[in-house]
Amino acid sequence: AIVPVLPLTLYVVLLIHAYGLFPGIIISWLGIVSGTFTVFLICKKFVNTIRMKKLKSRKSVQRLISFIDRQGLIPLFVLLCFPFTPNTLINIIASLSHIKIKYYFFVLVISKLISITILGVMGKEI
């Protein structure tokens, strides 16, 4: 989540093969949740800076923020469950919305466990 260019799937698969299915999933999950939540908190802290206000003023970003605010946590949960969704984009948009930090953390923890488990099971078969 901190460096979106790095291939997350590759790291999950490597950890699964190095430590086994269950420990690999737990290690990956802890790392991904902590990194993603850290980025969320950083973006949330700087939501009122000039750069973030400029980002927030874009029409496409406003539509996404409005969608998250209207629909609640279910669509966010579903998006975060898919292993190949752009987590960085979802994370930044969520930090600009009016989601409470504790609710986002809860959704993140559960959805990433599902996502990493899917990746782990798929990666175990490689």
UniProtKB/TrEMBL annotation:
Domain VTT, first and last residues per copy: 7-124
Keyword field contains Cell membrane: yes
Localization (cell): Cell membrane
Major localization listed first in the record, in broad terms: membrane
Topology in the lipid bilayer: Multi-pass membrane protein
Positions of transmembrane segments: 20-43, 64-85, 105-123
Entry superkingdom: Bacteria
Keyword Transmembrane carried by entry: yes
Record protein name field: TVP38/TMEM64 family membrane protein
Family: Belongs to the TVP38/TMEM64 family.
Species for this entry: Staphylococcus capitis
GO CC annotation: plasma membrane
Keyword annotations: Cell membrane, Membrane, Transmembrane, Transmembrane helix
